[in-house]
Design goal:
The chain has helices at about 10-20, 25-35, 45-50, 65-75, 90-105, 125-135, 160-165, 165-170, 175-180, 200-210, 225-235, 255-265, 280-285, 300-310, 345-350, 355-360, 380-395, 410-415, 420-435, 445-450, 470-490, 495-500, 505-515, and strands spanning about 5-10, 55-60, 80-85, 115-120, 140-145, 150-155, 215-220, 245-250, 290, 320, 330-335, 335-340, 365-370, 405, 440. It is α/β, with parallel strands linked by helices and about 525 residues long. A hairpin with an 8-residue loop joins strand 10 and strand 11 (about 330-335). Helix 18 (about 410-415) packs parallel to helix 20 and helix 21 packs across helix 23. The longest helix is centred in the C-terminal third of the chain and has 19 residues, at about 380-395.
Length: about 525
């Protein structure tokens, strides 16, 4: 049975509430230690314990033992106490060491058998930040907050550990930095990922950190960037690697059949249902369910998925309860979710086409895959890998086939392309080039001919012809505007950094250009 385990600091507000129950002399002495402040009864911690049931309560405290012992007795609940010694309750390094030690003790040898819960309200803001850091990385947890007698579960849907806390701490965890610095070939489970660019290393590092935890992952990227390959790698790097991996393409299944594909159906549920049929959630029990093209689900299916992705109270993070089509009882399964989409789901949410609450259920950790044009140094490696596979396939089915190589000029041409269809388009072009090549090596002309047969996606914004209304200055300003926007987004809004990227001597020059051209930009690159 999964045990609900709470970990929390004891803070000033908790002890002030406790002080009200003490004799006058003791109350005065305790309040001298705590200093001025409000004493809202019953305090954050007791508010949570009165509202929620936990099988085990672990409390971290940085106060004199006599006050802590008295407070624990006042709570009226059995607790496990973790005394710590902090010189400064706002020092992130000290807090991290104390909290990490306590959580390691709490979960040691019990992973999978406990549901960890962290209370963010007691203590200093630095303590809450460390809880979030640890609860989103090493020790996956549910977060709670309390205020003015109310207690509630707090969703932290974005990957705050990766995007915010390192900036806050100014010293990200060295182990996480090490993982992000590794090439895919060095990361267990991700060795099928080809490339060594910074962009792909970061994507692999982020995915690997998510893989080892039982949290939903949302893989984002353009068509052909390898989202299913990443999903399989996340599964292979996870504790569920020996369980099943089941992939469902939500866009390829007719809307009226998707529910039964996911949840199964009972005998007699509809015409032709001659027997019970298990669905994808049944098949993925103990493993991973990959929901590809999740952005294509209609509103009705989004509601059903939202319900399934909410684990029942007291259960583990991968507990799924659902009802097969035509069934009269619910089914419980243990399934980790990895979803993927090439859509901008935040824009879909803003336009009312995708449920915001479902997005946050799916995107506990998000991994954005870079397109080929943003990792050009990887293109020759990927092309060589694909060409070797193509040669293997042709050789297996064509007696006497001679492996094809690729000339240096052809490889240079391949590297210079934008590849709007990404790896999928590159593979198709190479297949066609191998098929039509007359010699032992594919040359530039054969790649160009194959590329000409691919759907073209104009990415430079330049006109292909000049008409009578053409104004050169207008087009040059548009090009300037695009590069200024790109620099500001890449620099996170820091004008001195953006000016350096553009080769400008000072940020004042950049600022003048931004104002003249009325450049709009955003820190997250979404415009």
């Amino acid at each position: 049975m999964v045990r609900r385990v709470l970990a929390s600091w004891i803070g000033h507000a908790d002890l002030r509430a406790f002080a009200a129950s003490l004799p006058e002399e003791d109350r005065t002495n305790l309040l001298k230690v705590l200093g001025q402040g409000r004493a809202d009864a019953p305090g954050p911690l007791k508010t949570l314990l009165d509202a929620e049931r936990f099988d085990e309560v672990n409390l971290l405290a940085n106060y004199e033992k006599r006050w802590i012992r008295g407070y624990c007795g006042w709570l009226g609940q059995k607790v496990k106490l973790h005394p710590v010694s902090l010189k400064d309750p706002t020092h992130y390094g000290e807090i991290f060491e104390a909290a990490d030690t306590a959580l390691r003790t709490i979960v040691d040898g019990r992973a999978g058998n406990i549901q960890l819960n962290l209370h963010l309200s007691p203590g200093t803001p630095a303590m809450a930040a460390i809880w979030i850091l640890l609860g989103k990385t090493r020790y996956p947890a549910t977060f709670y907050q309390t205020h003015q007698g109310r207690a509630w579960k707090t969703d932290i849907p974005f990957d705050i550990t990766l995007d915010f806390v390192p900036e806050l701490l100014k010293a990200p965890d060295a182990h996480l930095q090490h993982l992000a610095a590794q090439s895919p070939g060095q990361v267990e489970g991700f060795r099928t990922i080809i490339g060594d660019s910074t962009a792909i290393r970061l994507a692999v590092g982020r995915a690997q950190r998510a893989a080892v935890r039982h949290v939903p992952v949302l893989v984002l990227g353009e068509s052909g960037t390898g989202k299913e390959v990443f999903a399989r790698a996340i599964h292979a790097a996870s504790p569920r690697r020996n369980g099943p991996f089941v992939a469902i393409n939500c866009a390829a299944i007719p809307r009226e059949l998707l529910e039964s594909e996911l949840f199964g159906y009972a005998k007699g549920a509809f015409t032709g249902a001659a027997r019970d049929k298990p669905g994808a959630f049944d098949q993925a029990d103990g493993g991973t369910l990959f929901l590809d093209e999740i952005g294509e689900c209609d509103p009705a299916m989004q509601v059903k998925l939202l319900r399934v992705l909410e684990p029942p109270t007291g259960s583990g993070p991968c507990a799924r309860v659902f009802r097969a089509v035509g069934a009269i009882v619910d089914t419980a399964r243990d399934v980790r979710i990895v979803a993927a989409t090439n859509r901008d789901l935040l824009s879909e949410v803003a336009m009312g086409r995708f449920r915001e609450d479902l997005y946050y259920r799916l995107a506990v950790v998000s991994v954005r895959l870079p397109p080929l044009r943003d990792r050009r140094q990887d293109i020759p490696l990927i092309a060589s890998h694909l060409l070797a596979k193509i040669n293997d396939e042709f050789r297996a089915h064509e007696p006497g086939f001679r492996d094809k190589g690729i000339s240096a000029s052809a490889m240079g041409f391949v590297r210079r392309q934008d590849w709007p269809g990404n790896v999928r388009q590159l593979n198709n072009v190479l297949v066609q080039a191998v098929t039509l090549a007359s010699g032992d090596a594919i040359d530039r002309a054969e790649i160009a001919a194959a590329l000409a047969d691919s759907p073209r996606k104009q990415t430079d914004g330049l006109p292909e012809t000049i008409d009578d209304n053409f104004v050169l200055e207008k087009h040059l300003e548009e090009i300037q505007r695009r590069f200024l926007t790109l620099a500001m987004e890449q620099a996170g809004g820091v004008k001195t950094r953006a000016a350096a990227l553009l080769g400008m001597q000072n940020y004042q020059t950049l600022d003048a250009q931004l104002k003249r051209l009325k450049v709009a930009w955003s820190k997250d690159g979404r415009g």
